[in-house]
Specification:
The protein is mainly β. It has a domain of about 110 residues. The protein is built from no helices and 15 strands. Strands 3, 4, 5, 6, 7, 8, 9, 10, 11, 12, 13, 14 and 15 form a 13-stranded parallel sheet that branches. It has a two-stranded antiparallel ribbon with strand order 1-2.
Length: about 160
């Protein structure tokens, strides 16, 4: 489960040379899930003052600290909305989600529905106005959620010998 002593990146990440794209100025939560360590893709960042409109899809983690209007479809990775980040989903009636990802961490503002196959975490400064679908949900003190919640069954494979 959650352990306060863990950091987001494995200790080997500290010895890697910094990338020009992923020099994060943001602070991620001190508590993280064990299986976040298995993701080694380089994080793409949409920084403060940047605006993106349309559909974003891909295979690596995404950090948004600017403004995005549209859809995000990154089903096997983590999407993080930073403290200054704003995501506004396209208006629709087809029941589709504005953000579809493996994990969604919200520190900023989300307007629209989100779906995560693993977990959604709304931190103290985070807010979501819209429906949410996920097997695991964590809302920190001060986090805000206005909308429907569907906590579905977690379909991940559990290691042998665990219940």
């Amino acid at each position: 489960m959650w352990r306060a002593s863990q950091t987001l990146f494995p200790s080997s990440a500290a010895t890697q040379e910094p990338s020009s794209i992923s020099t994060p100025e943001h602070k991620l939560p001190a508590q993280v899930c064990d299986d976040l360590r298995s993701h080694s893709h380089e994080e793409v960042k949409i920084g403060r003052g940047q605006f993106v409109k349309g559909k974003i899809s891909g295979s690596g983690p995404l950090f948004i600290d600017g403004r995005v209007e549209g859809d995000i479809d990154i089903p096997n990775e983590r999407v993080t909305i930073g403290e200054h980040g704003v995501f506004v989903a396209h208006a629709r009636k087809d029941g589709q989600f504005g953000i579809t990802a493996r994990e969604i961490v919200i520190m900023g503002q989300v307007i629209g529905s989100v779906s995560a196959s693993h977990r959604v975490e709304i931190l103290q400064s985070g807010s979501i106005t819209g429906d949410l679908e996920t097997p695991r949900l964590r809302i920190a003190d001060g986090g805000f959620l206005r909308g429907g919640v569907n906590l579905r069954e977690d379909k991940r494979e559990l290691p042998a010998g665990t219940a």
